[in-house]
From TrEMBL:
Entry protein name: Molybdenum cofactor sulfurase
UniProt source species: Aphanomyces invadans
Cofactor(s) the protein needs: pyridoxal 5'-phosphate
Taxonomic superkingdom: Eukaryota
Gene Ontology biological process terms in this record: Mo-molybdopterin cofactor biosynthetic process
PROSITE patterns: MOSC (PS51340)
Catalytic center residues: C417
MF terms (GO), sorted A to Z: lyase activity; molybdenum cofactor sulfurtransferase activity; molybdenum ion binding; pyridoxal phosphate binding
Length: 780
């Protein structure tokens, strides 16, 4: 580990250990590596803030005559001075505007900047989406836009150390241009030299040919002229690096405090040079910003102080009061020490990941950025990467994230709201991106690999309380799941197939009348081409989105016990827990008349929606607005089998039936010394008498004279972690399965089935099951 670890002091590791023990006990058992998203608050911050609020009375600062208001105003002014001092900003030169965060600050700059048709807005291609949002204001006023390559911006910064004279050509007084760049890229951790600010202030962009950088628009090719103002997006940089506004002087700078010290969220700051503020044209003035205002006349005059003009409405004054403790914590450690600490961690992580190899010698990890050439000062707090299998194929970041979550590892995946950096580092063309969009890919979805190339990345990032043990836990996870010990290793294991020496029998039959609610086990039941009669016949949906709920949304659904009473011709629903509620009974013969569209696993179908009285019962017991729908016989969804035959599945996710073997459950429990109940797998059929996972090699199953096709394995998700009696989550089941039942990013357990003929018949517990083994997997 680099000498910078532990804040670069001899006692640093002891200080870090003490911090974790005293202030970050809520991190015990967790590996938090998403500090670029939000760093973690210390318990002392919450406690000191709570004490402050309990021991003092604070009122609305706009109620200036009240003592409580006066005290609040004094504290807010003190906080403003404190924030300015932290960044070494003189309040004679800068004003500090409190905002809801960096994004709100960027919006204020964009909507107030004096763009004209002669103006330009330039931004680095690795700028955050919130910076790109300024384009809408620039474009609306006819300004020309330029996307600056990272290497161009860095070259400008390096040239700042040389003799560059102020450009006086075309420096028209009434033309103002804006250039924005991040202090640290939130995708890769690459830092831009802050000396770039000085070069940009010398209007160096007026002397550089930017035609190739111009963003396509209706505007003709434009050569910048006039004065350049600089916007520094310090949202990422400020959390782990010192920023000295007495040395490097952007015209605007934005920060979010939760990225610096975790708490509070929803508070940030916009630094504005007072010499520039008078040129800004604020289009809206809310409460508290006006010195004079008339209702009958269209006359208003804003306050003279910049922060008074820009802080619309009542600022979050109670949250702002919490910032002092966070700032004091960072001062105590010093930002220089924190910079060394996170730099050491990122270097350590980079070196460890870059040396990983599969048994066949291929690299495990593809790392983005220039970590190998960065100095200690240039080392950021981020390592972004993707992982590869031994055959060179990419591991999807969705799979990686899901598996990491099971192990208590918190990371970020995707493009991190930075499309330019994502495109650059992944080597994607604009046509590639347009192709992704045409295929339905959107931000935040699970389309992580398209045409064998990743659409995003995996990001680990570090904060001042991150330890080497955190990083080692992450690296151990990577080695366990993503480094192949042998070139032919497969993660999904199954015992060798043999000729069955005993009879396989159907040992349990379960139907689930209401999708994702409790099961109803029976000794015998009628079967049809759509599945077990009344299986997933009903579903609960969100009344607003009409998306079907699952136990992942509402774990308490597991405690709902629907029972189909054939004799009484009723669906009776009770609760398995202690919820004090009367049972609900719905006639089976009643089909609602109101038809509504329903979304099941992103597929659309139609359902019949029940009345408010029925829906109120479910809303009451589940504590969330929901509506009951019954599958519409006329519009049942279907899935294609390998033979291209269609099978209606109603509200089921994938297929009419799901089968598991009891031996497979027993094997899992014996492997891990666990006691996972077979019910968590929510199978329609459980069979006895075969080897564990023998069902993986079946192509067909006969029950008596009736044949069922095996459609394929069931991919498992976190629902198997939900106890089907209590609705409580348990981390074990999916984590266990991931270690030996994972194949190409999916965790499999059980097989989907469908009837080969459209007949109906009755099955019984104890029926003989005759499987047919796939032709290419013969028995020994």
């Amino acid at each position: 580990m680099d000498e910078g670890y532990g804040y670069g002091t001899a006692q640093g590791e002891d200080i870090l250990s003490k911090l974790r023990a005293e202030r970050f006990r809520h991190l015990e058992g967790q590996v938090y590596l998403d500090h670029a998203g939000a760093t973690i608050y210390g318990s002392h911050q919450v406690e000191q803030h709570a004490t402050l609020l309990k021991q003092n009375l604070f009122g609305n600062p706009h109620s200036s005559s009240a003592v409580s208001s006066q005290r609040t105003t004094e504290e807010i002014d003190s906080a403003r001075r404190d924030v300015a001092a932290f960044f070494h900003a003189s309040l004679e030169e800068y004003d500090v505007v409190f905002t809801s965060g960096a994004t709100a600050g960027l919006k204020l700059v964009g909507e107030s900047f004096p763009f004209t048709r002669q103006s330009s807005f330039a931004y680095s291609v690795n700028a955050h989406n919130s910076v790109l949002g300024i384009r809408s204001f620039a474009n609306a006023r006819g300004a020309t836009m330029f996307a600056l390559p990272v290497e161009l911006l860095d070259a400008v910064g390096q040239a700042a150390t040389q003799s560059i004279h102020q450009d006086e050509t075309n420096n028209e007084k009434d033309v103002y241009n804006l250039v924005a760049f991040p202090g640290e890229c939130n995708f890769s951790g690459a830092k831009h030299p802050l000396s770039t600010i000085e070069a940009l202030h010398r209007n160096v962009l007026n002397r550089i040919p930017l035609e190739k950088c111009q963003v396509p628009s209706k505007q003709p090719v434009h050569h910048p002229q006039g004065k350049w103002l600089v916007l520094l997006d310090a949202a990422k940089l400020a959390g782990t690096n010192p920023i000295d506004l007495s040395e490097f002087k952007p015209d605007f700078m934005v920060v979010s405090f939760y990225k610096l010290f975790g708490y509070p969220s929803g508070v940030g700051a916009l630094f504005i040079k007072k010499s520039i503020a008078r040129h800004l044209i604020k289009p809206f003035h809310g409460g508290g910003t006006l010195a004079t205002s008339f209702s009958a006349l269209n006359i208003s005059r804003p306050h003279a102080a910049t922060h008074r003009r820009f802080e619309d409405g009542t600022i979050p004054y109670l949250s702002i009061l919490a910032c002092k403790t966070g700032l004091d914590t960072l001062r105590e450690l010093t930002m220089e020490s924190i910079q060394r600490h996170v730099g050491a961690l990122s270097t350590y992580t980079y070196k460890a990941l870059s040396t990983l190899r599969h048994a066949n010698g291929t690299r495990v990890c593809e790392i983005y950025g220039s970590h190998h050439v960065r100095s200690k000062q240039e080392a950021g707090s981020i390592v972004a990467c993707n992982f590869k299998r031994h055959d060179g194929s990419y591991v999807g970041y969705t799979e990686f994230s899901a598996l990491a979550s099971l192990h208590g590892i918190h990371i970020r995946t995707g493009c991190f709201c930075n499309p330019g950096a994502c495109q650059f580092y992944l080597g994607l063309t604009t046509m590639d991106l347009l192709s992704h969009v045409n295929q339905g890919h959107v931000c935040g979805d699970a389309m992580d690999v398209i045409h064998d190339r990743p659409t995003g990345a995996i990001r680990v990032s570090f904060g001042y309380m991150t330890t080497k043990q955190d990083v080692d836990a992450f690296l151990a996870f990577v080695v366990q799941y993503y480094v192949s010990a042998l070139p032919t290793t497969t993660v999904m294991e199954a015992p060798p197939m043999r000729i069955e020496s005993t009879t396989i029998r159907l040992s349990k039959i379960t139907l689930f009348p209401i999708k994702s609610c409790g099961g109803m086990s029976v000794s015998g039941w009628a079967v049809g081409p759509d599945g077990l009669f009344y299986d997933r016949e009903w579903a609960l949906v969100d009344p607003e989105t009409l998306k079907t709920f699952s136990q992942k949304d509402l774990p308490k659904m597991a405690t709902l016990r629907p029972v189909v009473d054939l004799e009484a011709q009723a669906l009776n629903i009770t609760m398995s827990d202690s919820t004090p509620v009367s049972p609900l009974s719905i006639p089976l013969t009643y089909v609602p008349s109101l038809t509504t569209n329903v979304s099941v696993c992103a597929a659309d179908c139609q359902g019949k929606k029940y009345d408010d009285l029925v829906n109120a019962w479910f809303t009451n017991v589940l504590g969330r607005p929901c509506a009951l729908v019954r599958v519409s016989k006329e519009s049942r969804r279907s899935r294609l089998t390998p033979s291209k035959a269609q099978h209606a599945i109603g509200f089921a996710n994938e297929a009419p039936f799901l089968l598991i073997s009891r031996a497979s459950v027993t094997l899992m429990n014996s492997k891990f010394g666990s006691d996972v109940d077979e019910d968590v797998f929510r199978a329609n059929f459980i069979v006895d008498g075969c080897d564990a996972h023998a069902e993986d090699r079946w192509s067909e199953v006969a029950i008596g004279s009736h044949s069922l096709a095996v459609l394929g394995p069931c991919g498992r998700c976190t629902m198997v972690n939900i106890n089907q009696t209590t609705g409580e989550s348990e981390a074990g089941p999916l984590k266990h399965l991931a270690s030996y039942r994972r194949d190409r990013g999916k965790i499999y357990f059980g097989q989907f089935l469908a009837l080969k003929a459209s007949d109906s018949f009755r099955i019984q517990v104890g029926d003989t099951i005759a499987p047919f083994v796939k032709p290419h997997e013969t028995s020994e």
